[in-house]
């Protein structure tokens, strides 16, 4: 393997005075001692007596391999925070290396401030050790319970995008992000190296990535650790970074090298920012980064039972696994722990020596106490225009059409203008497609790379743009999460079929929020708001690959304390819903609404009332007032609502005495019992609306079984018949796609005939007529390539109900 050294990227060691060097190393030894202690010890925390089996945890959990490297980075950043009064946070991509972050957080005192029982003494250290990876304690990642953490790292790949989102509109903040070499093999992380191209040096802070090449994953080498130096350097230069290499295993030499690299990188960051801010010209910069090559499990046991451990994959988790039953392993463990010389680091009461305490930054300059890592502490509420000003004019219900998302684009445009330092819109090259392009009137797409002359002709690009577009949903989601977690607000619009790209990221953020809500010291952050558009029922032209409403099923899996799903049927309901979501905190709001022209149902006042209720009877579409209905027809989603209304009209023409109650559902979680979700409807209210014994024909936007899952405990569930997407589709007309999945007006009308007892026999002629109409529509579509005019131009045929 070619290990040629490029002297331009391998800096000479910094000259740190000997006393400072010794203190720095001692602080790092204290971190390593605590990190190892978290994995092994439940008693005798300072080894003030010989180590015995009774002092050990029964179950040994945790990851040692990355921990020494993480604390090494943390301690060196502390040095520069003190020297230069820096404003910085720390993100650990190798989440299982949490002991390497928890240790310095504890030593600088913030952990004890948040958790007073984990005090700065021997008893506190014992509590710290015992709670790590222990029932009732904390996890082995940098979980929400850890002060200073905005990134758990339980799932790999998101650290760099989180770090970047954190520094958008934070001009003085530096995100120091440790990226594991195993993590660097993931798709999301590989793509997020492009984040540097989106950092505006005038209004944004800076990211300092530290790629940690410790050589191994769980039990395999890592790719980036085995390629030649020149190739590795070229890779990152190609990504647009300037790499500084810090390599070795001798701690004292490595301290000098790391100090030099950190000083150089911080100086580069300050220089680039100063040049841009003095000139007023925002250009793409080549930002510095560090490649730290150190042994996996650094400072741990070299060999165990004749097998290499330090510097090998065996150091990944617990290096000594037989300490309970093998006296030699117990001896090795004690030797390892005592190698850090804890008696030099802590006094008899277990307090860190005053000279070492002085190495930690103070107050909010501690990375664990930085207010940006508890974003709700610095969050400013959005200034919002009155969403009513963007309303669609609706006279008689269901007699006019409009593009649902275009007024929302105007609403977002004005929100951006009123909040030009704490609100951004994110999307994967789809905002124009999704009819949100009004936002470009006040903010272009951020673009810091080269321009071509033709880019001025509709390209909507600007170095000052606040709209972030990149064809990587992973990176966008990571940016948005980092932006929200540090106290700002955002909006993410994407195609329904491909929101699945971020399924795992959504899962992780939902878990983070669910835990964070239980921590009184974490201030609430702004909700994450998704607009899911280009929906399944209008993907007839793109085909089967673009037809998938299953993201809703995933959302329902997560904690009800943080998940919300809304399916507004028209413009005014969408505007009311968006306003509510943008004001909310600590939630994940999923809004499903198509971008194309759709029939409009409610004026603004009616829409607001309807959205507040979350679901309700539409009197103008019902004819059962004062009587029990024969059937309850339900629409949930824009197209399903239209088809359910059209079916209602067919039935009222065919059976004038049939009593139909029409219900529309906006807030999907209203279908659940109130004991299951904060938005759940009481059983009494549900029974009043949906009856206890009448057929319910429920036309749903997504997969039909989701409705059964939400409503299975309801009294009338046996009479609930749900239609939805069932994986039938290709290149179809809209009505043909609806027919293929039985959500069309004819199928629904036939369902009513089949399920209403009085219609099963006498409805035979009507059923045949509906079948004939359905066949005629299919024939028309196959002949002309579009749906018949009476389908596309359908309107509610009955006069509105008047008082």
TrEMBL record:
Q: Which cofactor does it need?
A: thiamine diphosphate
Q: Which GO terms describe its molecular function?
A: aldehyde-lyase activity
Indicate the segments forming the Xylulose 5-phosphate/Fructose 6-phosphate phosphoketolase C-terminal domain, all copies. 595-796
Which keywords accompany this UniProt record? Lyase, Thiamine pyrophosphate
Q: Does the keyword Lyase apply?
A: yes
Q: Which residues form a coiled coil?
A: none
Q: Biological process GO annotation list?
A: carbohydrate metabolic process
- This enzyme's EC code(s): 4.1.2.-
Report domain Xylulose 5-phosphate/Fructose 6-phosphate phosphoketolase N-terminal positions. 17-377
From what superkingdom does this record's organism come? Answer: Bacteria
Q: Per the similarity annotation, which family is this?
A: Belongs to the XFP family.
Put simply, this protein is called Probable phosphoketolase
Q: Which source organism does the UniProt entry give?
A: Pseudohongiella nitratireducens
